[in-house]
Structures
1.
Amino acid sequence: MTRPRVEPSPLARLRPSATTIGIAIAALVGVALVHRDPWSGGATKVPLVSNQSVARRLFPNLGEHDLSQARIELARAGGAHVRLVPGPDGRHQLYADEQLLGSADPVAVEGLWSSLRMATTLRAVDRRVKPGERRGAIVVVLGEETLTLEIMGPTAEGAGYYGALTHEHGDIWVVESEVVALVQQPPETWLSRRLLLVEPAATTRVAFEGDGAPEKSVVLARGEDGLWRGHREPDGRARLLATAAVETRLDRLFATPVTELVTRDRVPEGALTPWLEVRDVEGRTHVIKAGGPCPDGDPGLRVIDRGPGLLACVPAERMAPIEPDGSLLEGRLVPWGYGRILAVDMRRPASRRLRRRGGGWVLEDGAAEDPPRAERVSEPEVYRWYSAVRAVELGPAGVEFTPEVDLVFESDSTQNLRVRCGPPILAPTDDA
C-alpha cells in the first residue's frame, strides 16, 4: 500500500540550510575583524576628509579683473600688514602697516597676481577639524568685492595649510604651501629696486640739473618726429642724437640698482636737491633729488629721493649726466626714412624745391614766377638720390667753413632738418 506524500510547510521552506548559516557566520566574523582589527598595533588618528572634495581655484574670478585696479593685502601674524594699493598711474604703492615705503616692483606684483590667480586648493576639509591658530591672511579687493583667505596651521601629514575662504561662508580647504609663503615675505620684497619705473621708449624729455649748477645742466628731448636732440647749458645748440644710443643709455640709467633703503629721518632736511627730471609720454614729470654720501659712510653710494616713501642709495658712478656728444650723435646726414620726407628746399647754390604731389615728385624752380615752373621727377630717381644723401656719414664737429649747399628737409611730423654742406667731407647737421 503506497503511503501518501506529505508536502513541507511554508515555514520549513524558509529555514536556511547548514551551508548558508556557515557562510553568514563567516561574513559576520570578517566584518568584525575589519572593524576592530586586533592586529593593527594601536589606534591611528585619521583626519576627517570630505569624500566629495575636489581641487579648485582659490580665487576663480581674478582672471576677469584688471590688476591695475586691484588692492592686495598680505597679513602675517606678528608681522607687518603689507598693502599694495593701486596708484593713479596704474602702478601700485607699497605700504607696511600705515607707512608708505614707495612704488612696488611691477614685475613682483604681476608675479603675485599670477600666483593668486592660479592658486588651487588640495582638498576640502570637514568642519569638525580644528585648523589651528590664525597665521595670516590674503585679501584681494576688487571694487566693492572683497575676497579673503584666512590661513591657519599646517595639516597633520604636512601636505599644506588649512585655509578658510571667509567670503564663501568660511569653508575650510587645504591650500598649497606656496600660497602661505607669500604672506611670509618681508615688506621690502615687493619694493621696486630700480632708480625709475619708466621705459626709455615712453620718455620724451630728460634733464640733468648738474647738482645745482645751471651751467652744467644737460637736456635731452624727443621731438615730434621721434628723434632725440640734446644740448648743454648755456650753449643751447641742439644736436641730433641717435635714438638707439640714447635709449640704451637711458635704460642703463633708469635701471640703476638701489643697494640700500634709508628712512627719511637719517638725512638732514634740505640736504637733497633736484638732480634728474624725466617726462613721459603721458605728460607726467618724475623728479629725483640727490644728496651726499649714504648715511652708512660709503663714498661710492649717494642718497636719492625717488618720491614718497623711503630714501635710497645708488652707486655714484651711475649718476653721471648723459652728454649729447661723442657716440650719442646721429651718424647719418638725414635720419628720416624715405617715406617720411615731404619736401626738400634748396637755398644754395640755387633756389629750388623738390616736393611730393599727386603720388609723385615735382621739382619747382625758385624763380619769381607765379605759379612756379615745375617739372616731374621720377620716383626711382628721387629715391636713389635720397638714399645716397641719407647714407652720408658725419665727420667731426667744430670745423668752420662756408656752406656751398644749403638744404632743408621737411618731414611728415612738421619737423625740419637743415643741412649745410661745405667742401668735400664736411657736412654738419643742426636743427632749422
2.
Amino acid sequence: MHDLTPQSGRFDGPRHQFAVRVYFEDTDLSGVVYHANYLRWFERARSDMLRLLGIDQRGAHDAGEGAYAVADLSIRYLRPAKLDDAVLIVSETTEVTAATCRIRQTAWRGPDKLAEAQVRAAFVAPNGRPRRQKREWVEAFNTVLIPATPGPSTESPA
C-alpha cells in the first residue's frame, strides 16, 4: 500500500492553481506542446477545482442527477510550452447562474502567459437538457467568484 494521492492543486485566494509538467507525449513533431493538450490540462484543472470546492461530479452522475458539459469554449494561444516546462494552470470562476458557470483559465510558464481560455459549462440532466445546479454548488462557486473584467487576464501568478 502506498500513501501517494493525486494532487488537486490548491486555491490561492479565489484562484485555483494546478501544476503540470510538459512530457514528451505532450509535444508535437516540432517539439512544442500540441494545441489540444492545453484543453486536457484545462479540463483537469477545472475538475480538480470543483473537487476542492466540494462539488461531487461523480456522485451526481452516478445518482442520475446530471453532469457538467462544456457549452462554449474559446482559447487563445500566445506562446508555446516546450518539453520539461513547468506550467501553472490558473482557473478563475467569473460567473455563476442557476445552470451554468463561466471559468477563465490561463496557462503560465513563470511570468509568461502561454494560453488563455474562456469556458462556459452547463449542468445537464441525463437527457441532455440544462438543469439547475444544486444550491450548495452555486454557493461554493460564489465563494471564489471573481467578476469578469473586459479583456484578457494580465495578472501573473509568479
